[in-house]
Amino acid sequence: MAMPTSYCSISNPQLSKTSYHNKQVPSWVLRTISNGNYTGGCYTITKRNLRSRFHICAVTGDQGTSNVSGAEFPSDYMELLVQAKEAVESAFKDGKKLLEIEFPTAGLQSVPGDGEGGIEMTGSMLLIRQFCDRFVPAEKATRTRIFFPEANEVAFARQSAFEGCSLKLDYLTKPSLFEDFGFTTKVKMADRVRPEDEMFLVAYPYFNVNEMLVVEELYKEAVVGTDRKLIIFNGELDRIRSGYYPPFFYPKLAQLSKTFLPKLETVYYIHNFKGLKGGTLFRFAFQMFSLYRARSPILALLIHVHAFA
């Protein structure tokens, strides 16, 4: 099994501050750090509650990095992004239009919930930006629209990871007066899309159950019958597939497992399982899912399995 990868480190540096929605938020700082044989970027950002500050260290590497051959488990996030880029390119060449990319953001051997929710979402945001830097050509940046879960997240992205970029940033839902109770204002997707849009990337639509319903609407109204492509990035769709949401209380969400999710092509996937018989389920491009199951601290058994059959 691949060795654990250190991704996040938390500290409280002294930073200059800029105004952001009437709150004080640290400015975005990029410094180069050394990480073994790779190059990393150290990003200074803010937590979701906009109170404390921390560092997230994520490798950036070279945009010209050659493609990775084979389907070996990535050794770090730089290799992961290169593999994800290659997997998406292969899927597009094969005519696929609806893709899923899923992997943990608190470390390559972490599971959802290992990190605080806001930190995990911010990790996804950083990695999405790095993925786009590698995958989206400069001339297509203005024709690529990234949908974040809600409008406040777009404002956060513009002040941090996506500051100064040409990518179009948009949102799936808008906050409402009852946001604390899980209610948001639905956004009509037909009103958000522009004729020049060629590709949509949906960022971590899992915080509110309504977000994936809006993603399905986006697919039906703006992708079906066109040449556009849609990528769902870290949507934690296994929650829906596994019945985590009881169908009795979430009938529309349960219906997605029959109508929308089967259309998805999972082109890049890492899912870790903890416990005495834990392991890692990994898929790269169109190859079979591989299950790395630990049998002892120094021995692992590789099993090929078909998932989501």
What's the topology here?
Blueprint: E1 8-9, E2 17-20, E3 23-26, E4 29-35, E5 38-46, E6 53-59, H1 77-93, E7 98-102, H2 117-135, E8 144-150, H3 151-158, E9 168-175, E10 184-186, H4 189-192, E11 199-203, H5 210-222, E12 229-233, H6 238-241, H7 251-259, E13 265-273, E14 279-284, E15 289-296, E16 299-305
Parallel strand pairs: 7-12, 7-13, 8-9, 8-11, 11-12
Antiparallel strand pairs: 1-6, 2-3, 4-5, 5-6, 9-10, 13-14, 14-15, 15-16
Helix pairs in contact: 1-2
InterPro entries: DUF1995 (IPR018962), LPA3 (IPR044687)
Pfam families: DUF1995
Protein name: DUF1995 domain-containing protein
Q: Helicity level, as a percent range?
A: 10-25%
Sheet-strand content, in percent, reads: 25-35%
CATH topology-level name: Rossmann fold
Largest sheet: 10 strands, mixed
Helix-strand string: EEEEEEHEHEHEEHEHEHHEEEE
How many structural domains in the coordinates? 1
- Shape designation: globular
CATH architecture: 3-Layer(aba) Sandwich
Number of helices: 7
Radius of gyration: 19 Å
Structure commentary:
The chain is α/β, with parallel strands linked by helices and 309 residues long. It has a single domain (68-305), classed as Rossmann fold (3-Layer(aba) Sandwich), CATH 3.40.50. Helices cover 24% and strands 31% of the residues. Strands 10-9-8-11-12-7-13-14-15-16 form a ten-stranded mixed β-sheet, with helices on both faces. It has a four-stranded antiparallel β-sheet with strand order 1-6-5-4, with helices on one face. Strands 2-3 form a two-stranded antiparallel sheet. The model is unreliable at 1-69 and 295-306 (pLDDT under 50).
